[in-house]
C-alpha cells in the first residue's frame, strides 16, 4: 500500500497530466461535425477537384456549407503565421458569402436585363466555387494548434445587379492590394509567399473577366497593380460588412492585430474619383471619428502602382468644416489608388496612418461604389 503522502502527490501529478492533455475543447453548442475539416485530406481537394470550378448548384459548396469554427486538434503554441492565415480565412468568408448571396439573389435574367452577357451568373458561380477553394486552402494553412474561424453574418449591396457587380470589382481589386501587403509579412515562408501571390493572381483573373465582359472596358491595369504594405488596415475596413456581434464567439479578433482606424470614404455626393478630382471626405463610422491635433501637419497619402504621393491637408477647422482632398493629377486612370490620412509624409509606418485606407477604383470610373472605406455597405 502507498503511504498517504505518495498517494496525494500521485493524484496531484494526475491532475496536472489531465490539465495538460490536448483537450479538443469544443463548446457544447457545436455538434463537432466541423472537426472533420481539421483533416486536410477530407473533402474535395483544391487543384484536384472540379468542385471548385464547375459546380452549378445554389447550395453552398464545400467547405462553405460547414459554418462552425474548427477547433484546435493539437496542444501547443500557434505556428508563426497562424494569425495571417486566420485573417485571410475570415476575409475569405466575406468574399465567399458575397458571391453566394449574389447568385442566390439574382437570376440569369436579372443580369441579362441589366445589359450583361448571358453567361454572367454562371461565371459568378464559378468564381464562388474558386472562393470556396480559397476557404479550404486557408483552413489547411492554419496549424492544428489554432482555431479556424467560421463565418459571421454580412450585409452586402444587393439592391440591383449593377451595384452588386460594381462592388464585386471593388472587392477584387481590394483583394489584390491587400495580398500585396500580406506577402510582405516577415514571418512568411517562401512557399507561403508563393501561395499568396497565386491567390492574388486568381483574384486578378476574376477582376479581368468583370472589366472585359461586364463593363466592356480595357482590362489592362497599367504596368503594375498597387502594392500596399498595411494589409490588415484594408481587412479592417471589411468589418463594415459584418453584422456586429454575429461572428462565432470563438473566432479570433479580425483582423489580428488591428488598429481600429476611422473609416474613410468620399462624401456621398462625390461626382468623380478620377485623378485631379477634389473630393470631400466622410469618416463614415459615427462611433469612430478621427482626432486631429492642432500642432501636427496631416497628409492625404495616395498609393498607386509602386509609389505614393502625399498632399498636406487642412484639418484645423474639422469637424466644423469638412476636409477636402485632391486626387493627384499625375496618376494614370488605371487600377486602384489607396488613399489614407497620415501624420507623416508617405505614411512610412502603419502607426503613422490616422484614418483609412480607402480604395479609390479607377477602372471602370464612375461606378456607384467606387470608394470602399467602410461606408458603402453599412448594416
Ligand atoms: C457539404 O458539401 C459536401 C460536398 O458537396 C457534401 O459532401 C457534404 O455532405 C456537405 N456537408 C454538409 C454538412 O452539408
Ligand atoms: C448567349 O449569348 C450569345 C451571344 O451573345 C448567343 O450566341 C447565345 O445563343 C446565348 N445563349 C443563350 C442560352 O441564350
Ligand atoms: C457619411 O457616411 C454616413 C454613413 O455611411 C452616411 O449616413 C452619411 O450620409 C455620409 N455623409 C456624406 C456627406 O456623405
Ligand atoms: C511611400 O513611399 C515612401 C518612399 O518610397 C516609402 O518609404 C513609404 O513606405 C511608402 N508608403 C507606403 C504606405 O507605401
From TrEMBL:
Highest taxon above the source species: Eukaryota
Q: What is this protein called?
A: Uncharacterized protein
| Pfam families for this protein | Ferritin_2 (PF13668)
Q: Which UniProt keywords apply?
A: Signal
Q: Does the keyword Signal apply?
A: yes
User: Where does the signal sequence lie?
Assistant: 1-20
Amino acid at each position: 500500500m502507498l503511504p498517504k503522502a505518495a498517494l496525494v502527490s500521485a493524484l496531484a501529478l494526475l491532475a496536472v497530466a489531465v490539465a495538460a492533455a490536448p483537450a479538443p475543447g469544443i463548446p457544447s453548442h457545436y455538434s463537432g461535425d466541423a472537426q472533420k475539416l481539421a483533416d486536410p485530406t477530407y473533402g474535395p481537394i483544391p487543384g484536384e477537384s472540379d468542385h471548385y470550378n464547375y459546380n452549378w448548384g445554389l447550395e453552398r459548396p464545400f467547405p462553405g456549407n460547414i459554418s462552425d469554427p474548427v477547433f484546435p486538434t493539437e496542444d501547443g503554441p500557434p505556428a508563426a503565421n497562424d494569425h495571417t492565415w486566420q485573417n485571410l480565412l475570415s476575409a475569405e468568408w466575406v468574399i465567399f458569402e458575397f458571391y453566394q448571396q449574389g447568385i442566390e439573389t439574382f437570376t440569369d435574367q436579372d443580369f441579362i436585363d441589366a445589359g450583361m452577357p448571358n453567361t454572367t451568373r454562371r461565371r459568378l458561380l464559378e468564381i464562388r466555387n474558386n472562393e470556396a477553394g480559397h476557404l479550404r486552402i486557408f483552413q489547411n494553412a492554419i496549424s492544428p494548434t489554432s482555431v479556424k474561424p467560421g463565418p459571421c453574418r454580412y450585409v452586402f449591396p444587393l439592391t440591383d445587379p449593377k451595384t452588386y457587380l460594381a462592388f464585386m470589382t471593388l472587392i477584387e481589386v481590394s483583394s489584390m492590394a491587400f495580398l500585396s501587403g500580406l506577402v510582405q509579412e516577415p514571418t512568411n515562408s517562401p512557399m507561403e509567399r508563393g501561395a499568396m501571390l497565386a491567390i492574388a493572381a486568381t483574384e486578378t483573373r476574376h477582376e479581368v473577366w468583370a472589366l472585359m465582359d461586364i463593363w466592356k472596358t480595357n482590362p489592362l491595369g497599367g504596368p503594375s497593380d498597387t502594392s500596399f504594405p498595411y494589409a490588415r488596415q484594408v481587412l479592417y475596413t471589411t468589418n463594415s460588412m459584418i453584422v456586429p456581434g454575429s461572428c462565432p464567439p470563438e473566432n479570433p479578433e479580425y483582423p489580428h492585430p488591428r488598429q481600429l482606424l476611422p473609416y474613410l470614404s468620399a462624401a456621398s455626393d462625390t461626382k468623380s474619383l478620377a485623378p485631379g478630382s477634389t473630393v470631400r471626405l466622410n469618416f463614415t463610422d459615427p462611433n469612430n471619428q478621427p482626432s486631429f491635433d492642432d500642432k501636427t501637419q496631416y497628409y492625404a497619402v495616395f498609393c498607386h502602382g509602386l509609389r505614393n504621393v502625399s498632399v498636406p491637408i487642412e484639418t484645423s477647422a474639422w469637424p466644423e468644416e469638412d476636409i477636402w482632398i485632391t486626387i493627384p493629377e499625375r496618376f494614370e486612370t488605371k487600377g486602384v489608388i489607396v488613399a489614407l490620412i497620415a501624420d507623416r509624409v508617405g505614411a512610412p509606418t502603419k502607426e503613422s496612418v490616422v484614418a483609412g485606407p480607402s480604395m479609390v477604383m479607377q477602372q471602370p470610373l464612375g461606378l456607384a461604389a467606387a470608394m470602399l472605406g467602410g461606408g458603402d455597405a453599412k448594416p
